[in-house]
Structures are given as C-alpha cells and as structure tokens.
Amino acid sequence: MSIIVQQPEGPASSLVLLTHGVGSVPQSMLGVARWFTNHDRNAMVVSVASPEPSDISNGLQWFSVRNVTEANRQARVDAAMPVFVATVRHWQQASRVNEQRTLIAGFSQGAIMALESTKLAAPPALRIVAIAGRFATLPQQKSAAAIHLLHGSSDPVMPAALGQSAQARLLELGVDATLDLAPGVGHEPHPALLANLATRLAPA
Question: Tell me, what's the pLDDT at 204?
Fold first, then answer.
C-alpha cells in the first residue's frame, strides 16, 4: 500500500512521488521521502506501491525482471506504463497538482519507469529524479521534463555508465539534464546521492 508521508493542511505546493525498486516496498523509500519533506514542508509526498507482487521476492514490481534482456526490457516497460501513468494521475487528482508541479523520484526500477514516462507525448511529471536508474532504450526525441540523474560510482547493478550515457543523449536532444555521481556508493538510495539535489532543484 502506498504511504502518504506528508500531506499539507493547505493547498500542496507540489507533488512528490517516490517509486521504489523491484522486489521492494514503499517503506524502502522513506529516507528519500524525508529529504523531500525537509526540502518543502508544503509538498504532498507519497511513497508509491508498485502494482504487482514481485516474482523474485516478497516485494512488489512494475514489471518482471525474470529473464529480462536488453531486447525485451522496453516491451515490459511499455506494458507497465499505462498503470504507472494512471497512478501518477491518481495522486495528482488527490493533491490537486498538475504535471508542471509533479516530481517523481524513483530508485532502480522505479527510476526506469520515471525516466521512460518522459518519452510520452504528454509526460505525467515534468521533474524527474532518477536514482540508480536507466532508460530501457535511450530516447529519440526531446522531452519537456527536467531530469536529474543520481548514480553511485560503484553500483554493480546499474553501472554508472548507464547514467552517463543517458545524460549524454539527453543533452544531445536539448533536454535539461544533470548527472551527479557519488564516489563509492553502490546500488541503494544512499543519502550521499541527495547531497547536490537541493542545488539541482533550486529555481533558476
């Protein structure tokens, strides 16, 4: 079940949705959620539950990673995307916040879904924080979303090269994209990955 981490008494200034990794649960993103509640006391912050039971653990998933390959990953993401978008729209309706003021902060598979949503003709969120994530396949067209990639330099699951190649392609396309690498950090939503995020999210 999704966890509402912060719900302001008045109108929400923004909506922050945390999307966890495959085989995990919303509780795993509470440390990241606390960073966002400290950053903006008027934001509605929700740690979202993926819709399906994981087929590799007791947790949850957006799509199966059993026998996943470079060739079949995109189709699995595409099949999961309508439910992902519907989930974002649900929380936007609940918070009365539109896509311009929606930020999705995803980890691992949650970051894949967040990044891939920016390929849509009408992305559900125009601010993305991708922690230890990747695109299923690199984008071919410019997105209106601002994308912040956070990666551990020692990540054995999603190598930092995936973040580097994603940023390079995004910049080629003219997308507002940044990449911050945390030395020695592996595959986890580590606090060090958030160290530069306040600067990245500061108004221009």
Answer: 46
Known catalytic membership, residue 108: yes
Q: Which residues pair with 152 in a beta bridge?
A: 182
- Token code pair at residue 72: 């079949």
pTM value is 0.96
Which candidate in 47, 54, 95, 108 is catalytic? 108
Question: Do residues 130 and 111 make contact, with C-beta atoms less than 8 angstroms apart?
Answer: yes
Cα(66)–Cα(41) distance, integer angstroms: 39
pLDDT, tens digit (0-9, with 9 covering 90-100), for 155-202: 999 999 999 999 999 999 999 999 999 999 999 999 999 988 988 987
pLDDT band at 203 (very low <50, low <70, confident <90, very high): low
Torsions phi, psi for 102 (to 5 deg): -105, 130
187 labelled catalytic: yes
What is the sign, positive or negative, of the torsion defined by CA atoms of 25, 39, 45, 51?
A: negative
54 is catalytic: no
Burial of 32 (0-12, 13-18, 19+ CB in 10 A): buried
| Side chain identity at residue 41, one-letter code | R
30 contacts 19 by C-beta, under 8 angstroms? no
